[in-house]
């Protein structure tokens, strides 16, 4: 996946004339330290091959920050991240910090604060089927073969950031959006689709929610409409993206269609809550959530890269977590933030080659297949480079 008018990282030139990049590594909680370390090993190998260097800073976010500082994110972390070229994040959260007390900090507040602080308005979640893993998906191989989707999820608005309150036995959360928030996300999705197959499914709940009707109006401003999947609407007089086909789809229908006919999708653009749910559903088309990366990007400045899976505290410290999602997130970082497209393609190809050669962690192994540890899987990817 290519960058879409994203600013490339400023380069520094070392004494040997090689490019030098600064990366903020946020290990986080649970398996986070293990998967970030695995990705750093792969990055070191590909950096040597493609002659650039990486220097890392570290910071506290999530449960670890709560334990050490009493806060879900260390003070000034977003500002420190802005001095770097990219942010690589492991995972945050876990049962240890679960609470229903609204006065107590939660690890996820650190992640939400980071997204808001860095103005990361778009979350990109590519979902691509791996031929070598067709048997591990619960969906029939003929249904998932050739799946290549990017979910573009709005990240700094909606119900996660709207006013919320609990009073006695009553609680509410507000899904709030502005035209500007919808426009910038949908414009990004259309620019991305123009570099792919030229199709955007705008997903909403416009038959019920006023915020979704605002969203749909923004989609109509971004490109020409075609009926399909859940509604239409008047075509705007001067669409900005006539080269991209727009289809509207209601979110409940989209949830069904992802399982029924996933190859119909190219780019799915949707708001925060819907995107959170649909992208996790789409992840299972590949057979394991442990295989899928993500990038959170904004209009400029630093972007954040992380696997879409959680902190998996039940397996933390056992050396068995699948590192591939984080390794592929690092590949997205190489491409979108550092401008090292050839290195990014090499990492992606190495993961596919390792899988094709039979490398499996527990989450993607079929019955009777040998199971590798996190370090062994990382070794196989490095060897495939």
How would you describe this structure to a colleague?
This protein has 385 residues and is of the alpha/beta class. 36% of the residues lie in helices and 19% in strands. It contains twelve helices and 14 strands. The chain has helices at residues 32-50, 63-69, 77-82, 107-117, 141-144, 179-194, 210-222, 251-260, 272-283, 324-336, 341-356, 374-384; strands spanning 12-13, 19-28, 52-58, 86-91, 122-128, 148-154, 164-167, 170-173, 199-204, 225-226, 245-250, 267-270, 293-297, 304-307. Strands 1, 2, 3, 4, 5, 6, 9, 10, 11, 12, 13 and 14 form a twelve-stranded mixed beta sheet that branches. β13 (293-297) and β14 (304-307) form a beta hairpin. It is globular. It starts with 11 loop residues before the first strand and ends with a helix.
Which helices and strands, and how do they pair?
Elements: E1 12-13, E2 19-28, H1 32-50, E3 52-58, H2 63-69, H3 77-82, E4 86-91, H4 107-117, E5 122-128, H5 141-144, E6 148-154, E7 164-167, E8 170-173, H6 179-194, E9 199-204, H7 210-222, E10 225-226, E11 245-250, H8 251-260, E12 267-270, H9 272-283, E13 293-297, E14 304-307, H10 324-336, H11 341-356, H12 374-384
Parallel strand pairs: 2-3, 2-4, 4-14, 6-12, 9-11, 9-12, 10-11
Antiparallel strand pairs: 1-2, 5-6, 5-13, 7-8, 13-14
Helix pairs in contact: 1-10, 1-11, 1-12, 6-7, 8-9, 10-11, 11-12
């Amino acid at each position: 996946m290519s960058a879409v008018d994203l600013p490339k990282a400023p380069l520094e030139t070392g004494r040997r004339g090689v490019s030098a990049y600064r990366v903020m590594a946020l290990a986080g909680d649970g398996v986070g330290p293990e998967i970030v370390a695995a990705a750093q090993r792969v990055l070191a190998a590909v950096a040597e091959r493609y002659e650039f260097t990486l220097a890392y800073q570290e910071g506290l976010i999530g449960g670890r920050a709560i334990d050490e500082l009493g806060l879900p994110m260390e003070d000034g972390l977003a500002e420190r991240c802005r001095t770097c070229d990219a942010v690589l994040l492991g995972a945050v959260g876990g049962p240890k910090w679960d609470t229903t007390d609204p006065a107590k900090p939660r690890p996820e507040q650190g992640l939400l604060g980071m997204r808001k602080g860095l103005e990361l308005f778009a979350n990109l979640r590519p979902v691509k089927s791996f031929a070598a893993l067709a048997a591990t998906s619960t969906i029939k191989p003929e249904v998932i073969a050739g799946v290549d989707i990017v979910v573009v999820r709005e990240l700094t608005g909606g119900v996660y950031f709207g006013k919320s309150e609990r009073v006695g036995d009553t609680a509410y959360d507000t899904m709030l959006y502005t035209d500007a928030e919808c426009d910038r996300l949908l414009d990004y999705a259309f620019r991305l689709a123009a570099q792919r197959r030229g199709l955007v499914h705008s997903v909403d709940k416009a038959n019920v929610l006023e915020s979704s009707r605002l969203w749909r109006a923004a989609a109509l401003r971004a490109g020409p409409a075609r009926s399909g999947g859940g509604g239409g609407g008047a075509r705007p007089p001067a669409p900005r993206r006539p080269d991209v086909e727009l289809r509207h789809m209601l979110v409940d229908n989209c949830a069904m269609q992802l399982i029924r006919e996933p190859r119909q999708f190219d780019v799915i653009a949707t708001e925060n809550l819907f995107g959170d749910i649909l992208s996790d559903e789409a992840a299972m088309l590949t057979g394991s959530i442990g295989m899928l990366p993500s990038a959170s990007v904004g209009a400029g400045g630093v972007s954040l890269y992380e696997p879409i899976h959680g902190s998996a505290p039940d397996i933390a410290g056992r050396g068995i977590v699948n590192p591939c999602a984080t390794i592929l997130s690092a590949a997205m970082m190489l491409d979108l933030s550092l401008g090292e497209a050839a290195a990014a393609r090499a990492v992606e190809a190495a993961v596919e080659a390792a899988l094709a050669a039979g490398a499996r962690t527990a989450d993607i192994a079929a019955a009777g297949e040998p199971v590798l540890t996190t370090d062994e899987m990382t070794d196989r990817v490095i060897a495939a480079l």
